[in-house]
Amino acid sequence: MKALINSVSPLIWLLFAVTSLIWIFIPQIDIYVANLFYTQGSGFVFSGSVLETVLYNSVKYVLISINLGALALWLYNRFSKKDILGFNGKKMLFVILVLAIGSGLIVNALLKENWGRPRPAQSTLFNGKMEFKPAFIMSNQDGYSFSCGHASAAFALIAYAMLAKRRKKLWMTLVVGYGSVVGLARMAAGGHFLSDVVVSFFIVLITAKMLYYLMFERESATL
């Protein structure tokens, strides 16, 4: 267990801990950021907009396209005995597990379905009917804000960036940038608070780091 925890750098743990405490004890930051996208009488600027809809739906199609491409590459390598990009069954399993555990299990099934945090647009602060709740504070209200499912799914592409043999920092930057833009669009539409997006990022990143250690680094360390 200690080795698994240590597979994630202390800086990442520190940033996750510090930002989590900020969301709990200074929830005004969430309110302030949400208010940047809100106009009294008009609502959230991106709500129902074409751009928000495109970004919202893009996650599904981007994931399907990339994962099907990866699956095709793996199958080709397996049956043709090739080694294009070094993509094998273990790497295919890795990207699936990052998405399934980080985004699917932890963010969506565990948090989103059970936490009850109202979305910004549902909060009385923004002309909704539910009481605002800070991040990490459970609520008995029927809200699905904590944490951001679409952003977590976009951030799950981090798995591919971690497997890249060249320009890893570039691919990581592109993935984080894409996930952030998706999260920003959800915030601007009143669907999520800033904390929802940031927490999803750290959950997926930490999940990916731990899975990478278990599937690749631990094995090489024992050889």
Task: Indicate the topology.
Elements: H1 2-6, H2 10-25, H3 28-36, E1 38-39, E2 43-44, H4 50-80, H5 89-112, H6 149-155, H7 158-163, H8 168-188, H9 194-221
Antiparallel strand pairs: 1-2
Helix pairs in contact: 2-9, 4-5, 4-6, 4-8, 5-6, 5-9, 6-8, 6-9
The helix fraction, in percent, is: 55-70%
Name the shape in a single word: globular
What letter string, H or E per element, gives the SSE order?
A: HHHEEHHHHHH
Strand content: under 5%
Distance between the termini: 20 Å
Largest sheet: 2 strands, antiparallel
The tally of domains stands at 1
Structural class: mainly alpha
Mean of residue pLDDT?
94
How does this model look, in words?
The chain is mostly helical and 223 residues long. It has one domain (2-221). 66% of the residues lie in helices and 2% in strands. The chain contains nine helices and two strands, in the order H-H-H-E-E-H-H-H-H-H-H. It has helices at residues 2-6, 10-25, 28-36, 50-80, 89-112, 149-155, 158-163, 168-188, 194-221; strands at 38-39, 43-44. A two-stranded antiparallel ribbon has the order 1-2. A hairpin with a 3-residue loop joins strand 1 (38-39) and strand 2. Helix 4 runs antiparallel to helix 5 (89-112), helix 4 packs parallel to helix 6 (149-155) and helix 6 packs antiparallel against helix 8 (168-188). It is globular and about 60 Å long. The two termini are 20 Å apart. The relative contact order is 0.17. The mean pLDDT is 94.
